[in-house]
Specification:
This protein is an alpha/beta fold. It contains eight helices and 20 strands. The chain has two domains: about 260 residues, Rossmann fold (3-Layer(aba) Sandwich), CATH 3.40.50.200; about 120 residues, Jelly Rolls (Sandwich), CATH 2.60.120. The N terminus is likely disordered.
Amino acid sequence: MVTRRRLETVALVVVVVAAGIGVFLVDRGPAPRTALTSGSSVVDGAPEQLRAPTAPTRVRALHDRNVTGATATVGVVAVTRVNTAHPKLAPRVTDERSFGSASQEPGGHGTAAALTLASVAPDADILVATADSTEDARQAIVWLAAQDVDVLLVPATELGAPDDGTGTLAGAATRAADRGSLVVVPTGNLARNHWQGQLHPTRRGLHTFGDGTRLSLFPPVGAGTQAGGRVQAQLRWNASAYPRDLDLELYRSDPAGISRVATSERIRTGPVRTERLDAHARPGDLFLAVRFPNRTVRRFNPLSARIEITTHRHRLANATAAGSIASPATATSALAIGAAAPDEHGVAPYSSQGPTTDRRRGVDLVATPTVWSGSREGTSAAAAYVAGVAALVSAAGDAPPPRVAATLCHTATDVPPPGPDRRTGYGRLDVTAAVNATGEAGRSTDHSRPTRIPDYPARKLC
């Protein structure tokens, strides 16, 4: 392997890192292939200080009808330790298991996800599994599925995994669904942190993004006016279409000129090659570039290969939201949840979108991300809310997971453009319509024309 230079401080992460928009974890070892992140749902304060969110008015109305999730069991995979002694959680958490480091960091994200479940489905039993790496999360999913949970919430994203449903967590989600659990996952928060397009070499030995060879970095929302601090990015491409090397490089531009900060290293070979860049940089004018090592290309037209760049924190200039969905939301049998816009008429600007690389829609539903213990929300919050509603529907109608998923999708409020689409799936979650469409809970109170819910096989949800 070519030795890569580091011109500013570069570090590989092996512990939990506060990333401003969530927590970031990686597989243990010198060269982890994928990274596990809780997304960008952020909480304020330590987990023991968190207040349980207030359930929306529509959900409280269902509670008044005794639709509370009784008889349902919900499992949650948390990437930070959950405060199971919290007054809202202690009566509901029936079992917990920790995978990975015994010194796992406490954090608000896992506790917040569990609190959302307890607020939406207050009588559901909750099982907690904590993990601090992708492999740990896989084991956590396996354990929860073996406990026969009705709903399995995985509020995490596996960065660097294939987008065709074959990633570690996507595969685990599929197997959990095969065992009979409804797996609910966030689409990710990468719509503004993602670029993809055709590989297009220039005579300078660099890829052009259409308007130049620089892909400028912007700071995360609420993190100042300049990019900087920890910069984490990944470059992926199809090796069958372009079997040669590519480098992802980080540069700084200042009055003294342009200087290279760091160069990526190879973390995955095979059909999909992946380069990872992980560096610390002083705040300033920073940008990424894709280099053809040794100028190995002699043609300067767009090539058949497509490349994809994803950053963990920093927003990208000219970001492409399409295709930003990440594992495990790429699993064929997981219910993938995006975040609805604040006005509930569209999708939140950060919410990752489909399609997957194998041309599936990707997104199934969008939901409000506001039922969350914190000041800023994300798709993890939206997924936790949907998981709680799924527990209500499951208990109200005693329905199998595929039918619960179909009920949630086919009672959703369509969001333009008409019909299922890669941005919002079937539309915005309608908790009242979903419960009213299943079991005696709906037939006794709703005399409108019932929604026809199709029956789906286990591998097809919506």
